[in-house]
Amino acid sequence: LLQLEVEELKEKNAESQRNIENLQTENEQLKNEHRNWQEHIRSLLGKFDNV
């Protein structure tokens, strides 16, 4: 029974690890998207200044 619980916890741990990796990847993508939007907005504001 104890061995079964250990295996179950190992599976949950592996699943949690996959979730962490997925969230880290998504976080990086969102950071890049955010950076791109900031640059785009900065560029647009610069154009307004030139008008």
Automatic annotation (TrEMBL):
Pfam families: ZapB
Keywords: Cell cycle, Cell division, Coiled coil, Septation
Transmembrane segments: none
Lineage: superkingdom: Bacteria
GO biological process: division septum assembly; FtsZ-dependent cytokinesis
Coiled-coil residue spans: 6-47
Any one cellular-component term (Gene Ontology): cytoplasm
The name this protein goes by in its record: Cell division protein ZapB
